[in-house]
Each structure stands twice: as structure tokens, then as C-alpha cells.
Amino acid sequence: MTVLIISTGGLYWWYQANFGSAVSQITGHKATSFNSKGKEDSSQSATSNGDILSGKRINILLLGSDNDGKGNNGVNGSPLAQTDIVVTIDPSTHYVGMLSIPRDMRVFIPGNSPGKMDYAFSYGYQSNVSKDHYADAAGLAIATVQENFNIPIDYYAWVGLDGFIKVIETAGGVDVDALHPMVDDVYPNDISTKDIYGFKRLYIAPGPQHMSGVQALEYVRTRHSDLGGDFGRSVRQQQVLTALKGKLQSTDTVNKLPEYAKDLVGYLKTDMQVTDVIKMANFARNINTANINKLILSPPYSGPLSLPDPKTGKNTNTGDFVPYCSKILPDLQKMFGDTASCKSVLSLYGNAATPSQQDTQLAQNNPSHVNADVPNATASTQQMVSSGAMSVPQLNDPFGVRSLLDLMMMVTFETVKVE
């Protein structure tokens, strides 16, 4: 009995020393609940406490920041959320849908003036409602999604991309065969620099090469240098994922797991428990990406907002986009049900703008716009289940670190599928 007690105590101490502290700093961070006026609402819970795959449909808000130090309105240290994606999952049918809200879409932010979607996270961070800035930031982002689209959010996950760099560095870099020469004259130069709003000219040579964490991030992040557009970017992301997967399956990974866990501290936060993350990661391995419905609220679902210039009186492009609810609502309700709705800031400006012919043509040629038809998608996934494609082996992940890495990749690469 004494030996058993000592052994159990030793294992517990070892786990806490290597994983427990890091995991507790990453998981279980309940989002602050805000009402429609941007005030803390203690009467409501922004998260669910049940089994994440118990059968109830769940909605998860994925939030990603390009740089943790990017502020808003000159306030440093209050990160924006450039990635705002709602993942909806029906565990009973294996239906998965993804709603991507553009960072530059002007929306109603509870308790604040209308602003870009990425401001919601920053305003919440600055609100000081609680001692946890990220819980406040996630809470206001959740409230903003609910205010504009009436989509209830059960869980959230936030990722700072500096964490991706650290993980790649811990893995010793990755070997990637760059598809073709890539030149991006306006690549955001916001890593390890004082000017976090600056740009630089990025050049990536073609062919096999060993990439550091920063180089790997540049390779998957650049959007202006691939003739294949978003499809080419997806291929590049898959290359890096495959290379990193090979590193994580090596015998050396077990020894590095504590280091990977520490790499994620400060760069990954979620209100899910580690057991929930493990279940989600295993669920994601069973998904056929061809059956994931995607709805991206870029044209023709939105368009540029022009407002009169105070000095000249002429309409000037603000750089923001506004939602066209007549276009959004049918597909939104297919994805989330009849309770989903849409509010547009156009009502504030008396602007009856409609999608231009150019916007409509762009949407037709954009493969990112996937029909959000729930019945068809459900039938496809049910066929996939019956064919045995869902029998992918589950990940043996007793400490949850690999699943946390998968969660980080989901946000970084804006895809539910992990390997």
C-alpha cells in the first residue's frame, strides 16, 4: 500500500510538473457572458457544461490573431481576432458546417459603436470586466456573433499565431517542397518587429527546403502570391501539416510533449476541458472534408461600405464590408436552422446598396462558396458512415497535448480537418 501511494503520488507530481500546469492555463477558461448592451450578464452562461459530443448540436467559435500585440485605436497589447469562424457540428449525423465572418465586416458590437468584426475581440479584451482579458475578449466576440446572426455559441478557442512558430521550432523545423516561386509585396511584417502594422516583400524560392517556424508561417499565410488562390494556399497548408505530422509521430515526440505543451501556453485558450478537446480531435479525424459545408460571407453575401466624406460630401469607400442579409439568411438558416437571423448596419446609414455584377461574378468563380444545404450534406455523411469511412483509428493521447496541437492547427489553417 505504501509503495502504491508513493508511486501514485510520484506519477501525479510528474504529470503536474510536465503537463498539468500548462494544460490548466490553456483549457477551462470560461468566456465572460455579455448581454446585448455589452454588459456582463451573470444570469447566462456562454458555454455548455455537458459532454461535447453527447448528441446535441454544438457551435464552436474559432478565433485567431495574427499577432498578440496588435492593438486597436493605438492601444497596444489588445489583440484583434482576424479569424472568426463558427463551426457547427451535429454529432448524431456527423454534419459539419463552417461559417466564416470576414474580419472587415462591419457589425453591431454590443455596448460599442458598429465596427469591424475583428474589433469585437479587442474591445472585449480592453473591457476589464474580469481579471481574464481573453475570457472578456472571447465573450464579446461571442455576443457579437449572437447579436448579428442569432447563433448560440457553446464553446470557443483562441489561437495566437506566435504559438505556431514556437511549435515548429520545437519540432526542429519542417521540410517542405515549395510549389513554385512566390512573391508577396504586401506581406504583413508583424512578427518580431517594433512596427507591427508594417509590410515587407516576401520571396519564397521553389523546391525542397528546410523551413523555420517563421518561414513556415509565411509559407502558409501569404495570400497574394499563389496563382491557385485559396486552393493553392490550402495545398501549402496541407504540406506543412503533413510535414509536422511526421515530426509529431517520431519517437522523439514523447520526450518533447512537455515542451510542446509549454509552447502553447499564452497562445491557445479555450473553455473546453482537455477531455473535450481529445474527443473533438478524434471526431475531426473521422470527417470527410468534401462533406464540410462552408459559408464565407464575402461577396455576394457582403459588399463595400461607402459613406459621405465629412469634408467633400462625396461617397468614399470606408474599407469595411457590410452584410447583405437577403443573400445571407437563406444559406445561414440552411446551416444553423430557422432560428438564425441577420442584422445589417446598412439600416443605420440608409444605404440600400445591393451586390454589384462584379461581386456576383466573383462569387460564382470562388470555390470557397460551398452550398450550405444541410439535408444533402447529412445524406452524404451518412453514406460515408455506412461505407466504413468513419472507422479511422482514434488518437492515443493520454495527456491531451497532441489534441491541443490539433486544435491550434484548426484555427491557424481555418479547417476542421486534422491528421
Automatic annotation (TrEMBL):
* Listed InterPro entries: LytR/CpsA/Psr_CW_biosynth (IPR050922), LytR_CpsA_psr (IPR004474)
Record's protein name: Cell envelope-related transcriptional attenuator domain-containing protein
**Source organism:** Ktedonobacter robiniae
Q: Which family does it belong to?
A: Belongs to the LytR/CpsA/Psr (LCP) family.
Q: Which NCBIfam families match?
A: lytR_cpsA_psr
* Pfam family for this entry, one: LytR_cpsA_psr
Ranges of residues in domain Cell envelope-related transcriptional attenuator:
82-249
Lineage at the top is: Bacteria, Bacillati, Chloroflexota, Ktedonobacteria, Ktedonobacterales
Q: Which domain of life is it from?
A: Bacteria
Q: List the residue ranges forming a coiled coil, or say none.
A: none
